[in-house]
Amino acid sequence: MAEAKLIDGKAFAAGLRSRVAEGVAALVAEGVARPGLATVLVGADPASEVYVRSKGKTAAEIGMASFDHRLPAETTQAQLLELIGRLNADPAVSGILVQLPLPRHIDTTQILLAVDPAKDVDGFHPINVGRLGAIAAGAPLDFPVPCTPLGCSMLLADALGSLAGKNAVVLGRSTLVGRPVAQLLLRADCTVTIGHSRTRDLAALCRTADILVVAIGKPELVKGDWIKPGAAVIDVGINRVPGAEGKTKLVGDVAFAEAMKVAGHITPVPGGVGPMTVACLMYNTLQAARRAAGLPFVAV
Length: 300
Ligand code: NAP
Known about the structure:
Layout: E1 5-6, H1 9-29, E2 36-42, H2 46-61, E3 65-71, H3 77-89, E4 95-98, H4 108-114, H5 126-134, H6 147-160, E5 167-171, H7 178-187, E6 191-195, H8 202-206, E7 211-214, E8 232-235, E9 239-242, E10 248-251, H9 256-260, E11 265-266, H10 274-292
Parallel strand pairs: 1-11, 2-3, 2-4, 5-6, 5-7, 7-8, 8-11
Antiparallel strand pairs: 9-10
NADP nicotinamide-adenine-dinucleotide phosphate binds next to helix 10.
């Protein structure tokens, strides 16, 4: 059997970033204020620092203003709420991203609730979570949608065209990834099943899937013989495992080499879903800036 087609998330994300950059330039040409992304990082977690830096850098590259707020680990909840209040009120800020996880003494739910839903470019505010659950199939996504799930759905639509009627299995039910992915696939008229750590016979469930999205954080748990021949496989997992010469390497949640021989389409790790997250954050920020200016939603 022929090998699966690779879904090149890196290339798709580059194209999306450049379309967003064109959207930013068009807004500015119309005399609308330049879209601005505020990032907020509390503490000095090295992985979070890398993410925040790349978000700020990408925003600047595509012509957005970028506001980088670094707060010490001992910042109080009241101080963080005060900063969020200022960013909510600042017309130069179209989108606010509070990098998670926050230090343990801060109540994450209260912080996510404090972000203005219109500026919640991560899509984690309960109002936006509720909108995603309530939206009718085919209606425009004219509110912020979590970035990684949005990236998965864009890659699938690009690879397959219409998803209507397909059996989709999503492994993982986190509020960050699994649940919003399932909502987006439902909106695209798939028949959706969600698997998780208490699911009986995951392998049999996966074999029913025309579309299999895996977001569990377990290196290479999904084997080649779990995959229906010709299925589209989106591997969201990012796992560091021991590699050659004492180094670590990145692998997904799917045993890639085995899956390549069975699937119809597959995302690699790295270079699949990963690059889509920041590109979709920029997309959400552009849409937030358009809404703030009273302009309609545009698909880019
Ligand atoms: P999470 O919050 O830890 O959720 C993991 C989910 O997987 C849970 O629903 C859990 O089930 C389920 N699960 C765990 N072990 C399982 C097993 N053996 N069999 C079946 N289900 C199992 O993780 P997350 O934030 O959703 O992230 C998932 C993966 O995606 C991670 O590798 C993460 O690094 C990656 N990720 C990538 C990106 C990106 O590409 N940009 C963004 C976000 C996350 P229960 O609910 O029953 O516990």
